Amino acid sequence: MLIKSDKLKGILERAYEGKAPTREECVYLLEFEETSMESSMIRAVSNDIIRRNSENSAIILGQIGVDITKCPGGCKFCTFGEDHTAMVEKRLTDEELRQKVKEFVQMGDLYGLYLMMMHDYELPVLLNAINISKELSPKTTQIWVNIGDTDLDTFKELKKAGVTGVYHVCRINEGVDTKLKPEDRIATMDNALEADLELYTCLEPIGPEHTPQMLVDNMFIGIERGIYQHAAMRRVAVPGSPLAKYGQISNLRLAQIVAVVGLASFMVPTMAYLGIHEPNELSYASGSNIITAESGCNPRDTNNDTAKGRGMDMNDCRKMLWECGFDYLRRGDESKIALTKEYVDQCFTNQSEN
């Protein structure tokens, strides 16, 4: 089937030539209905380019929510917001953390492990969690943090402790749907980069009310800084959160958005992988090649251990990536593991026995 729009054809052909779409072109790409032929073409081209660039490889990340408190960030989409949370305060014990880390790393195919804290966090608690994670993880698994706004000196200390990278975002409607300042969020991203940490960011949390221009303005915050990973995440209508009344976008629309993020960012020199949250097959056929297993608390879940709620485990992740046609898993040192059905089945058997 021919692409009817010469403008769309030109954007996609230039992408194959190594030229990312401009901001204005990204807005144009996001204006198509997710069910349209044009959207299907956008998703197909992003998927093809990113799979070629990565040798059809994907990575598995793990995230452990270490503690639960009433968060002063007050995000209207998050289960922890201090003005609406019903969550009971909790912190993982060292033994609980050790068990969760072991479950993630025991097969040696976890690329990176996120340690997630609340916006206001206690540095000694985080450093302890980092030490435990490094002790139990193979050298091929990187240690990352997902934390609140942080200064340069603290990031330098985290790097000395063995942290490779930081997940941080300036969210859509930051300062409107949150109590946080956009300039503080962006300063934290810059602090991480100045501390020589890799920066992982995301276009999030996407709701039905957000316009293509809002999405593009947000996605380019990371692109213009030189990210190691970009991503897209839809907002989950968490029961009790103020923004739940707006509902959610479909996974098909999310797949279209992640495809545009991929096309806009694949030429960033440091860009390696493209994430999607929450994991879904449509997005893995649209350019995404990161999947995340989760345990402990989760801002999109009302269960204090998301492993018993929304979170996927390592076996779920391996199976979904295999079903979506990836040939390899990458470890944190970029070495490859052939992703076959036999490998997936063997991991399931080994983990069941342990």
From TrEMBL:
Keywords from the named record: Iron, Iron-sulfur, Metal-binding, S-adenosyl-L-methionine
Record keyword Metal-binding present: yes
Organism of origin: Emergencia timonensis
InterPro entries, sorted: Aldolase_TIM, rSAM, rSAM_sf
UniProt name for this protein: Radical SAM protein
Any GO MF annotation of the entry: iron-sulfur cluster binding
Stored Gene3D superfamilies: Aldolase class I
SUPFAM superfamilies registered for this protein in UniProt: Radical SAM enzymes
